[in-house]
Amino acid sequence: MSGFLAGLCVAVLPLLAAGFRLGRRTARPPALGGLGTPVEHATFRTLHTASLAAPPLRAGLTEETAGKSAPRLRTLLGTDALCLTDDRRVLAWDGVGAHHRDAIMERLAGPLDTGRGEAFRIDCDTPDCPVRWAVVAPLTVDDRVHGALVACAPGESAVLVRAAAEVARFVSVQLELADLDRSRTRLIEAEIKALRAQISPHFVYNSLAVIASFVRTDPERARELLLEFADFTRYSFRRHGDFTTLADELHAIEHYLSLVRARFGDRLAVTLQIAPEVLPVALPFLCLQPLVENAVKHGLEGKAGTCRIRITARDAGAEALVVIEDDGAGMDPRLLRRILAGEDSPSGGIGLSNVDDRLRQVYGDDHGLVLETAPGAGMKITVRLPKYQPGVHSAGRLGNPTGD
């Protein structure tokens, strides 16, 4: 009998220990990866999955972006299948039942036209196919339907209808952000075109007039200036991205100043002090040249003597600090504020406001132009350029001297 009891104890003890451990887990859920309770863990998992689905969609709705996001979105909904469509075709299908693609697209005409969600039953001759029901949630940006998210399941589910609508709203927000990114890019391109239009009529005419004046008296000088003109205009009208390096921008400024000196001679004195370590820093294309042009214009206006311009670029920790100073006529600070606000645009003002707007768009409001001026006191312009900024990188120096 005692042997039987001993054996029984040996058999029961592991069960009691397991029950004790299970009871402790139930009474006090352990930390899951340092994330707290199972509910908190599930919340983190959902947010993490959503964060992985978002970046591809920020590039717009295409086959590539839909293919990368669809698996994450299906995980969020927990469905057997999910597809993303535009207004004409299925862009990506994730999960089982891909043979229903054409049938689903035929049913999307109504939701894509009205922008309203819909749920419908799917007929299927394949016995083991779990796709028997679909929920359609349109993807809209600015009240315009771009496509649809379709979640497929074995049967009806009111919870899935609501969940699909929320996930579709999440996708629509990402597409709206992508649309805003494209709009910002188009705006920057338009502003660069505006700068080019501002540069071309006056600068081109004056430069060619100066070059023509040397053709007979000093042909070699005319040839050098013509090369300077060609290099500067090639840089100004290039089509190689929105950003350049400080080295390339300063190189273009040197070409510009060579042409200006040829016109004004000893009336213009320019000092450059550039720290070599900041030369690789990326910055918006045609960002500094308009500021130097502004210094030349306002430095020479109404002044018979020499105009002195000083350009410095130095290392300031996480930033490169560029300062452009002139000892010209200066400006009323109230007029300057109106120029930067777009309320007034005298000669040269377009360049200042354009550069200020683009710096704020790229780096934030804290990195707009800092201008110090007063009538008769010249002007000092300070530009702060972060050395590292997500999305800001230069396409590099132009490699083909005869290219765009």
Characterise this structure.
There is one protein chain. By secondary structure, the protein is α+β, with helices and mostly antiparallel strands. The protein has 11 helices and 12 strands. The chain has helices at residues 2-27, 38-57, 63-77, 101-107, 109-114, 158-214, 219-236, 246-264, 289-300, 333-340, 349-363, and strands at 81-85, 90-95, 118-121, 133-141, 144-153, 243-245, 268-274, 282-284, 307-316, 319-326, 370-373, 379-386. It has a 5-stranded antiparallel β-sheet with strand order 2-1-5-4-3, with helices on both faces. Strands 7-9-10-12-11 form a 5-stranded mixed β-sheet, covered by helices on one side. A two-stranded antiparallel ribbon has the order 6-8. Helix 2 packs antiparallel against helix 3, helix 6 runs parallel beside helix 8 and helix 6 runs antiparallel to helix 11. The longest helix has 57 residues, at 158-214. The protein starts with a helix and ends in an 18-residue tail after the last strand.
